[in-house]
Amino acid sequence: MITPKKIFTFFSILFFISCADNLDFDQINDYNATPVITSSLAYFTILPSQFFDATGTPSNSEIIDESEIRIFDNDFVKDKVVKIDFNVEIKNEFDRSFSIQIDFLNDNRVITHRLNELNINANDLAFKDLQTVEISSNLNIKNTTRIRITIKIENSATPINPADTSEFEFKSSATIYLDTDA
Fold this sequence. Notes:
By secondary structure, this protein is mostly beta strands.
């Protein structure tokens, strides 16, 4: 039978022979918090009918979407951001290709940064793109307050059918890396 005296003796011996180092409280000085923020930037779906006017006449070969993004209105984020990853996912059911230009604008709609143009092939249902912006070499992006996405339909020998049910789905997000010691 195990008695309380035997249990106490066992734990006492274990306590006295176990290894222990002195605590190093200076380790906190070496700690660097690097929070990460991920947020949606833009999402929309385009139908063939959007390339036609009310009479059914093809009216444009491009669609522009512009939205406000106010992440840099926060001084903490503006001061601590070190890198941004821009992620784009596209599902193109159209039987033609598209090119996309993504621009970041300030309050006066002047470009603060431009991502590389994206070229999406016809019927590409799983297009993905990731572009990274290092803030140290692109400081002007901190003045961004808007995003403008320009989608251009590439010329094709066959006209678009406005009654077609194909969709062009655009999703984008940004992952913002902060350095609290910056």
